[in-house]
Amino acid sequence: MKTVSRKTLAGLLLAGVAPMAIGLTILPPAFAQAPAPVEAPVDALLQLPPFDLSAPDIEAQLAAHQARQAEIEAAITANPANAAALQPAIVEIQIRIQLLQAFVRPLPALDLAAPLAGLEEQLRAHQALLSAYQDAMTTARAGNQAGTTLAAIDARIGEVTNRIAQLEGAITAAAAPAPAPEPAPAPEPVPAPAPEPIPVPAPEPAPAPVPEPVPAPAPEPAPAPTPEPTPEPAPQPAPAPEPTPAPEPVAPTMDATAELNALPDLNLAVGPAEIEAQIVADDARLATALAARTTPGADPALDLLIAELQARITILELFVDPLPAIDLTAPLAGLQIQLEDENIRLADTQDALSEAEAAGRTAVLGALQTRVGEITARIDQLNTAITALAPAQQTPEPVPGGPVPAPEPAPEPAPAPEPAPAPEPVPAPEPAPAPGELMQQPQNDAAAAELDAEIADFVAIVLPEPVEGNDVGAINAQIASLRDLRTQGEALLAEGRVAGRDVTPLAQKIAGIQILITTLEERAATAGGATPTPAAPTPPAIIEQLTAGGNVAEAQQVQTLREQLLQAFITAGVGAILGQQPGVDTTKPPVPGEPAAPVYVPPEGFGIVVGQQGDRIVFLQGDQYVVRGTGTEELDRLLVDANNVTVRDLGNGLTETTIYRNDGSLIVTVTDQYGQIIQRRRIDVNGFEVILIDNTETLLGAPPVPPPRFTEILPPLQLNIPINQYIVDAALVNEAQIVAALSAPPVEAVERAYTLEEILHSSRLRNKVRRVDLTTITFDTGSAAIAPSQFDELIQIGRALETILAANPNTVFLVEGHADAVGSDFSNLILSDRRADTIAIALSQNFNIPPENLVTQGYGEQFLKIPTLAAERQNRRGVIRNITPLLNGGAAG
Predict the structure, then answer these.
(1) Is 441 a residue whose pLDDT tops 70?
(2) Which of 425, 433, 270 is nearest to 342 (CA)?
(3) By the 8 A CB rule, do 51 and 94 touch?
């Protein structure tokens, strides 16, 4: 019986969800301890039903495993003392059920004679299938499943890959009419259903509901690339849509010896695309060989060919993706998980190296030895970082992801091929070493003193005065010089964090450099007497989206109320907007059509303003960068369907803003002089009141300060549920599963009612509740607009939120926006915050989800789903959590 070790789970977690950003530790499960004596009935339950993915009775196997799972759970319920003994069987049976479910349905019939739209639909379905089978392979390997199981999944992957190649070839042929050599635009008509299903509740349902103004991304580029033309699919006539996918593989009479001798040499010294091509080719060969094998052992040459192909694929898969960036600025728990993952990667690579040496694969030995050296060097870096944080266990841990994207702290040393045979350069990862058990490396006092001196020297740098006059060349030269200085500081900042130094003064110096750069950039834009182009401020997201959807009158009403609200704040002289002082900023030219901008001055201790864009300000709080709205961008969403707004000074720095909706309901928000929400409630036309946010006890009269570092106050999170139930991928689940995830209680106790500020700025608190990753809604680079082709993907999540709100109208959801690592921290924070707003607006506009039940926050590039510094669409995404239990001290509503 197999169990999923902590090592394996940590590896899966890091590969799929960037745990260094989550700060998550999965502790060894209880069943890793010595099991209690097993009684006879329990012993019988440990005998699991037959399991064979290549057998035809998948449905019967699935039913048998589900029945056995129910029996085991009943036995534990009846006698909890059985839990320890039965837990290994539960883990194994859950893995088996997941794999059986992937195989329970046969592959759909392939119809290569279908019209273009039908071919594209089949292609999308097969791509989803391929992703599902690849996930199944990951699950099987993580669960240490037998080679026969891996072979069956490999065969299915090969079949689906082959079908995808045929479909791509058929699409290329169908999309290329004789006259036009470039048939890229041909598939445009396909996404007809995208904008149609959006039931915009606005007064004027235009024919194209809410078409986001950025249609540029060409939603469906599938036909354009002219994929590798496979030999078979070119002839489209007489496709004969046989439902059986098996005719492709060669009959059982293949010459395995000849196939074995004809295998091309592996080439690891190429890019990921070429390695992926080798994997696809070997997967296809493996599928053919598996189909030709009737009984294992009947043809030794065939068995040898299959084993050789499986070994080749294992080696290739180690190189198909570049090594992920390691985050040396992560908190201790994140460093530990990365260390465990590197240990797993090292063990896998060393196993492959040993196998290659035994098999005489001299062509790949050098690459494998180099990779072993690279991983060993990464492990050394992580151990050094852990040693710096672990001893006292009190050095403030940097906020996950850190503010400055220092290119890659401590660049990885050149490959060192020697350490190949040394399999244990680091502590064994299996038991998840506690901080006190980590390998301790001697501290280099001289190096530490030198680092302290470098930090002190950088902090002492006197920043230059901005150049005089309007010489654009001189201004740009100074900007370039300051950017170089900022880069040096960011590298030093990363090094200082790894060494556990106090980097707050250094971060503040870098913020000062950024402020100077921003000032000079503004001067460069208007130098030489050029008229400042009305700073084309990005229009408020709600106005932009309403206008794009054809709801011009409603957009104008929101704009009118927005101006009325701003003027009311200024007239009343209250600080309902973050840090606002009465008066108008006369240092900047007014923007036509925009109300005069108030002066924003951060309160004492709030942080350093790094820069501002529209209604969003980026602050440096300690050594962490955060983006905050001035208050208007959040109220903008609440102004939809409103007819009036009033502002009232309650005294003691408190301001009450009341929004009057067309349906007779009121949204009442009380803020303090620092812009913090003290309370928000909704009162319907009958006087029924729902309190959504109440931070009265904690925040009333309290100046805003950076929230406590809960990664230091609270112990590492112990996750006792499967990772796919904790982080739910919207693309892989149905509406009911989303409802279940967002209605589930927190995964650990909630100690008290936390404030919205604490929740928004502490990943440790947010990780107490499950999350839904909106992997179906991703953004183009530099854009906060949802492509029209993606609006359909909102239907499932929108209906799920409607279901939850129908049961608990006071539920508050957090909509998070994220960015990839391309670009500056400043721009990524602003962009991600706008993305969160866009998702929230789309949900409120198209579903029965009141905007006051949604709060938004951008996190820039701090929490990458795919750990890479390169452009990555999956990192430009949204996330939704139900934070009501955190606001209410554990209560669901």
Answers:
(1) no
(2) 425
(3) no
- Cβ neighbors of 178 (< 8 A, separation 6 or more) are none
pLDDT of residue 765: 93
Assess contact for 843 and 818: CB atoms under 8 A.
no
Q: What are the b/e assignments for 397-433, b being 16+ CB within 10 Å?
A: bbbbbbbbbbeebbebeebeeebbeeeebbbebeebb
Q: How far apart are CA 37 and CA 454, in angstroms?
A: 61
Q: How far apart are CA 717 and CA 220, in angstroms?
A: 40
Residue 868's CB is within 10 A of a number of other CB atoms, namely 18
pLDDT in tens, 723-748: 889 999 998 899 999 999 999 999 99
| Long-range contacts from 291-299, C-beta under 8 angstroms, 24+ separation | 291/155, 291/246, 291/249, 291/250, 291/252, 292/249, 292/250, 292/251, 292/252, 292/253, 292/254, 292/256, 293/252, 294/252, 299/256
CA–CA separation, 389 vs 383, rounded Å? 10
Mean per-residue pLDDT of the chain: 73
The dihedral through the CA atoms of 561, 564, 568, 570 has a sign that is positive
Q: What is the dihedral of CA 163, 165, 168, 174, to 10 degrees?
A: -80
Burial class from Cβ neighbours inside 10 Å (0-12, 13-18, 19+) for residue 390 reads buried
Helix residue spans in 390-436 (DSSP H):
none
- In eight-state DSSP terms, residue 312 is H
Q: C-alpha angle 505/506/511, rounded to 5°?
A: 95
Residue count (the chain): 893
**Which of 358-367, 535-544, 618-627, 840-849 shows the lowest mean pLDDT across its residues?**
535-544
Tens of pLDDT along 624-657?
A: 778 887 666 677 888 888 889 888 888 877 888 9
Residue closest to 685 by CA, chosen among 668, 657, 660, 663: 663
pLDDT digits over 4-31, tens only? 332 232 332 233 333 333 333 333 333 3
Q: Are 793 and 787 in contact (CB under 8 A)?
A: no
Asked if pLDDT for residue 77 goes beyond 50, the answer is yes
Mean pLDDT of 447-470: 84
619 within 8 A of 626, measured Cβ to Cβ: yes
The amino acid at residue 455 is I
223 with 186: CB under 8 angstroms? Answer: yes
For residue 770, the model assigns a pLDDT of 95
What is the full DSSP assignment across 188-257? TTTTTTTTTT----SSS--SS-S--S--TT-S--TTTT-----TTTS--SS----S-STTSSPPTT--HH
C-alpha–C-alpha distance, residues 733 and 740, integer Å: 11
**pLDDT for the residue numbered 668:** 94
Dig out the tokens for 376 from the structure: 């060993």
Cβ proximity of 76 and 36 under 8 Å: no
Q: Give 741 or 280, the one with higher predicted confidence.
A: 741
Comparing CA positions, the residue from 859, 867, 851, 891 lying closest to residue 769 is 891
Region 99-106: mean pLDDT is: 83
Helix, strand, or coil (residue 599): strand
Q: Are strands 616-621 and 608-613 parallel, antiparallel or unpaired?
A: antiparallel
- Residue 804 is predicted with a pLDDT of 95
> Which one, of 649, 630, 692, lies nearest residue 667 by Cα?
692
Q: Please give the average per-residue pLDDT across 814-824, as a whole number.
A: 88
Single pTM value for the model: 0.48
Q: Which whole-number Å values give the CA distances from 209 to 517, 787, 790, 838, in the listed order?
A: 41, 12, 13, 15
